[in-house]
Structure formats: structure tokens, C-alpha cells
Write a structure and sequence with these properties.
The chain is of the alpha/beta class. It contains eleven helices and 18 strands. It has two domains: 171 residues, Quinone Oxidoreductase, Chain A, domain 1; 151 residues, Rossmann fold (3-Layer(aba) Sandwich). The protein is globular. One of its GO terms (molecular function) is oxidoreductase activity. Pfam families: ADH_N (PF08240), ADH_zinc_N_2 (PF13602).
Length: 360
């Protein structure tokens, strides 16, 4: 059974003389990770309102996207590279309204509708309020609801940083995007198609119409076909699956192609970029040694991508959404009180597109 939320706060929001909402409360409801543990329920609790640091604004959370990384952090899979101080609220995606501006923050004002993938070590969108660095924030797309907007940041930035920033995907190139009906897949297919690429993906037969409607040109039914036997001479592979799939992905790439994995293993470049201590860099070198060796043998390039918050890139994504080039794909929306159920549903792997929590 999920842990229930505690009793409501007595403090409420106030409205100043100019009619602008400002927060007048001192606590908020949040779903907390108290100890690492596989499938361990988050606990609903009243916690102090977060204090703002330099360059941050306080966002009233209207909706929060749910991602597999939330479950992996809860399970303890990232505690070496993301050592959070517990207890902490989980949640990476937010759409909401700015209710307070912190020191040094100049880009946004109280009342602005915004969305973001919040920064590592400042996560916590499974809550009524969350602090966000202005550099990680962008105006919410005008043509999306709060729930639709909350579904975008993490998967949108993952796709952008893979296909645009890392791969430099060009018109006429071929890209293989695994798990096309998932959160990253549904966004990445649309972005790749907008960039003018030929797009291949894997999914089940029941989701073929969905991924074709998003722009997939070649659809491989993973239950009856082996993508390794169907696809040839691709320029880019976005890998989001297990190690076996990662190794097979090398065989669909042309010479000089790019294999970019968002599911690991981390490589030495990633370790160097994040200035990890020597033992962690050594571990990451060992973990990725096999795939890096195979990549060199086939004359393709392997890299690991761990997406990061980026408000400027999110603004680019906003422009594409407002022009109709990309649309959100949402499977289910859960009430805030059902945050644990939403997390379990994402873990099940059944979601087509994104899962969202409606907070306000």
C-alpha cells in the first residue's frame, strides 16, 4: 500500500495588492525517499518549503513527469554517481508557475508559467513546490496544458542532446531509435523526423500505428523480428536497452557511425566530464571497456549520455512544439496522492509515451 499524505497545511497562498500570487506558507506536501530500496514506497509528508539559492526561483508544481530514473534512484542504482542526502523528494520534470524569485534571478517573474528538467541534487518535483535554477527553466509552451508540458523536459532534452548536440543528425541520414513507444522514443522519433532523417524503431505490433504516426519509417516488431537482421548502414543508434541490445546495435551501424547509449555503461569521457574520483573513473573505464573495444574494431564511435538540465535547449524544444513539429504523448495521468502507483506503472514498461502526476 502506498504511504498516504499527511494532513493538509494550514498556511495558504496570499495575493498581494497588485493581484500577484505569492507563497505565504511555510510547509508543503512531498513524496520522500527515506532509504534506498527496490520498489520501496515513497512516503508522503509535510516538509519545510525549500529555501532559494543564488539564481533560483520557486515554482509551484502543477504537474510532474514520472521517469524511469526516479525508480532507479529510489532503488539505489545511481547512489555512486548521484549520492543524495536522504530523505529527499524525487521527481525530475516540472510544469508550473513561478511564485517567488530568489537572489540574483532576473529572467523570470512571479506568475510566469514555466517548465523544466530540474538540476541533479535539486530534484524534488513530486512536491507542491520546487526550487529551479533559472538557467534550467523555460517558458511553458503556450499550446500545451500543464500536464502535457510536464511530460516533455527530461525526454525532450535527452533526445535533443543525443540527436542534435552529440550526433549532429543531418537531413538524409538514418537513425535507429530503440523502444519507439516509450517516453524518450516517442519524442526522439518526432525530433529525428523534423531533422529530415530516416527513422527506424522497435516496438510491439500493437504500437506500430502509434510510432508510424509519429514519423517512424521502418518499424521492427521486437517480438517476431531481430533488428540486427533487418537494419543496415545506419548513421546513428540511440540505445536505451540492455547490454545485449547495445552490442547488437554495433552491427546496424555504417563505418564512422555513432552509437550513443542513455542506459550505460558510462565511459571515461563521462567520468572526466563530471570530475569523479579516481576509483569511479577506473570502474567506468572497466565497465565500458568491452563495448569501446568492439566499437573500435567496427570503426564506429561509442559514447554514454547522461542528460542534463538546460533551459536554452528547452526553449528550442518549445519553439518546435508551438510550431506543431512535436507533440506530447501521454499514456496516463495520476493524482498527486497516487505518486507511488505512477512510479510502479512506469516501472512496468507498459506505458506508451509518458506518465504524469497532476499536483495542483
Amino acid at each position: 500500500m502506498p504511504a498516504p499524505l499527511m494532513s493538509p497545511n494550514v498556511a495558504t497562498q496570499a495575493v498581494d495588492a497588485g493581484g500577484v500570487r505569492r507563497t505565504a506558507r511555510h510547509t508543503m506536501k512531498a513524496f520522500l525517499l527515506e532509504r534506498y530500496g527496490k520498489k520501496r514506497p515513497l512516503r508522503g509528508a509535510d516538509v519545510p518549503l525549500p529555501e532559494l539559492r543564488e539564481g533560483e526561483v520557486l515554482v509551484e508544481v502543477h504537474a510532474a513527469g514520472v521517469n524511469l530514473i526516479d525508480a532507479k534512484i529510489r532503488d539505489g542504482e545511481f547512489k555512486l554517481i548521484l549520492p543524495y542526502r536522504l530523505p529527499t523528494a524525487l521527481g525530475h520534470d516540472v510544469a508550473g508557475v513561478v511564485v517567488k524569485v530568489g537572489p540574483g534571478a532576473r529572467q523570470f517573474k512571479v506568475g510566469d508559467e514555466v517548465y523544466a528538467r530540474v538540476d541533479d541534487f535539486r530534484i524534488g518535483t513530486f512536491a507542491e513546490f520546487v526550487p529551479v535554477q533559472e538557467a534550467s527553466l523555460a517558458p511553458k509552451p503556450k499550446n500545451l496544458t500543464m500536464e502535457e508540458a510536464a511530460s516533455i523536459p527530461l525526454v525532450g532534452l535527452t533526445a535533443w542532446q543525443t540527436l542534435v548536440e552529440r550526433a549532429g543528425l543531418q537531413r538524409g541520414q538514418k537513425v535507429f531509435i530503440q523502444a519507439g513507444s516509450g517516453g524518450v522514443g516517442t519524442f526522439a522519433i518526432q525530433l529525428a523526423k523534423h531533422l529530415g532523417a530516416t527513422v527506424a524503431t522497435t516496438t510491439s505490433a500493437g504500437n506500430t500505428a502509434l510510432v508510424k504516426g509519429l514519423g517512424a519509417d521502418v518499424v521492427v516488431d521486437y517480438r517476431t523480428q531481430d533488428f540486427e537482421e533487418v537494419l543496415r548502414d545506419y548513421d546513428v543508434v540511440l540505445n536505451s536497452q540492455d547490454g545485449k541490445t547495445l552490442a547488437k546495435s554495433l552491427n546496424v551501424l555504417k563505418q564512422g557511425g555513432r552509437l550513443i547509449s542513455i542506459s550505460g555503461p558510462p565511459d571515461p569521457d563521462f567520468a572526466a566530464e563530471h570530475s569523479y574520483p579516481g576509483f569511479l573513473r577506473f570502474v567506468m573505464r572497466l565497465l565500458s571497456m568491452g563495448i569501446r573495444r568492439k566499437s573500435r574494431r567496427r570503426e564506429v564511435r561509442y559514447s554514454f549520455l547522461f542528460m542534463r538540465a538546460n533551459g536554452a535547449q528547452l526553449r528550442e524544444i518549445t519553439r518546435l512544439i508551438e510550431r506543431g513539429a512535436i507533440r506530447p504523448v501521454i499514456d496516463r495521468t495520476f493524482p498527486f496522492s497516487s505518486t507511488n502507483e505512477a512510479l510502479s506503472y512506469v516501472e512496468s514498461g507498459r506505458a506508451k509515451g509518458k506518465v504524469v502526476i497532476k499536483v495542483k
